[in-house]
Every structure is written in structure tokens, then in C-alpha cells.
Amino acid sequence: MSNEQHQVICPYCNNPTDWPAYCPSCKNYFEVQRPVPSGEPLSEARPTFSDELAFDVPPKAKSIGGWLVLPAIGLVLGPIVIIGALLMNISIAHGSLGQLVEQGTPGFRVAIVGQPITALLLLGLQLYAATLFFRKSTRLPKMMVILLGVNVLFTIINVAWTASVFQELTGAREIVQPIIMAGIWIPYFCISKRVAATFVNKRTRTDNIAGGILAGVTVLSILVVITLSAVSKVPAGQPQRGRVKSSDSAGIKTDPIAYEKDGLRFSHHSNWKITEDKTIAEKARQVNIESDDNAVFIILILPKESSMGFGDFAAVMAKERPAQIAGGTVSETKAFPVSRKIGGETFDGIRHMYSVSLLGHTIPNTQDFFQIKTEKANMLTTFQAPDEDWDNADKGFQVILDSLRFLSP
User: Contact at 8 Å (CB) between 199 and 192?
Assistant: First the structure.
């Protein structure tokens, strides 16, 4: 460097630097100073307005640390949780929740379509916020305020939808968590010095492109959900035309169909089907019959010397019940004695009543257990259905029970 070129002294390490606001020796930025000609006393140097315009350097963004680690984790895991909830909603839409739509339950179609839409909108906002967050964009603090506020709003809307359908407020506690999160993090992103020092990168074309793509994908997903919700659900392998939902609800009588195999004989409604007839544990046999409105009838045929009774059978089913509800919870089972005519004779049994809670919905269920001892086998039966479908399902159960016979081992 010639004597005519300018140098400044770094205020951190006191080394001269060719840069007006950056020291390559200690790698620090500092306040812009007027370059000083070689030999001129440093005490006489004064910054000028033109110098600041010419040599201004954007502040260096801090690394993501401190309390910012928590929202970083949330922005990574949040989309995964939402996608999992959406997939679970799709799976249970073919069960009792889907039946509520078909039956015209007031407000349910709005809820079953609206909840995926709100979830998709929230997913789009979270993905866009994550993009701004890890780019350390200056737009991130405002975006986090919007995201947290929308999360509270959508939670309140979803809880209100659920309450309107089931006529009870089952998800009030779900509102508390997003409100607490918003109360903590909105002020933090507004006043934190670390936030101000971390998110300093100006808006770029990449931010705009990411926002446009995410908005387009979100709108397309909403249109897909609305389109699918308008299509009637048709069970796989069954034509929609001419299908009868139940023998009484449609006002049309369905003729019973006889089933006989390996000594087991019974009849069932024509809109019920045998979904399983298999051998288990070498000597036992299990037969499952299901209706198209979530009713299930199970026949378990054991060797005649088996000591298992209907109470033991009920205890095993109650123990395994929670594991069968993936992502949901099962309430405590209430047991009551019950009696019923089976093949013209009265048998004593036990009734289980419990509720399944899944994604903010609570569905009461009833399940009965009976035992029929014959000279050939120890036969156990259980049948269950959601309470809202029980009246129609019970007629189908009785058709099976009236005709149930086991003639050979």
C-alpha cells in the first residue's frame, strides 16, 4: 500500500486495516470511520456523511442460539405433526366419522372438511416461517407473530366445530396450550435483542419464490380436500348403485344370507360380509363378520375342554383395546351384566361400555360378550358397534345369534 492510500486502526486489536469498517486480523466489524491518510494524526479523523454511505457494511447475523433453539425445533417438528394428523384423519374418515357425514349429522360435513383445510393453511404458514427462520430473514419476527396468532384462531375454530357436532365441549384444554405459547413467544419476537441481532438478512427473491410456491401448494391442497369431500365414500369392492346401508334405516328389507363352513352355520344380512375365517393357535378358529356401518361380530370356537369363559374373553379384549387405537385414547371400561336370546335360549353375558377419543372427537362404543357351550366346542361370541349405530347394528347381531349353530369340531 502506498503512502497516499488510506488506513484505519481497528478499535478491537489496534491493527491497521485497509477496510473502513472491518478488521481481517480479528474479524470484527466496527463503526465506520473516515479513512486517515498515512501520517495524519488519528485524533483529527472525523467521519463524514459521504464516508458512511460509501463504506456502510450490513451487520453480521448472530448464530441461532439461546431461546431461539426452541422455536427452531418447533418449526422443524410442527409440519411433521400436522402431516401425521392429516393422515390419521384420512384413515378414520372411512370409519364412524365417515358414517356421520353419510348420515347427515348437522355440522359434521363442515367440520370434517374445514379441519383439514385449517391444518393445510397452518402447514403452509409453518413451512414458510421455517424458510424465513433458517435464512435469518428480517421478515421472520412479523411472520412468527402471524403464525402464533393463526394457530390460536384455528384451534378455537376446530374446538367449536367439534362441540357443535357432538353437543359437548371436549377439547377446551386444547385451546390453553396455543394461547400460552402465543403469550410467551409473541413478546419475545417483538422485543428480544437476540432476535434483532439474528434476523438481519434483507428480503431476497428466494423468500418471495418460496412464499409463492408454498401458497400455491396450500391452495391446491385445499381444492383437493374440498373435491374429495364432495365424493361419496364407496367401500372397496362394492358398487355404489343399489347398495343398501341397513335393513331398516333405508326402509328396505335385506334378505339374510346363509353361511356354512366346517360345521359352523349362521345367517347374516346381505349387506354384511365375512371378513375373516381362520385358524388360530392351531386348535382355535376365529370368524369375523362386519357391516358397512362399523358393526363387528366375532365368533371364537375353542376346543370343548377349554376353560375360557365370556368373562375371561372380555378381560382379554379390554386389555388389548388401547393398543388397537393408534394415536388415540380409550376411556375406562364400564362392565354390566346382560342377557340375550341365542338360538331360542336365554344366555347371560357381560357388556362393556367405553369411549374412544381421537383427534378431539369422542365416540362412545358398546361391546357384548357371550358363551355357548356345546358337546362339540366352547364357543365365545362378541359383537360391538358405536352407540350412534347400535340400534341398526343390533338387528344384524340378532339375525346371527338366532341362526348360530356349530355341528362339528
Answer: no
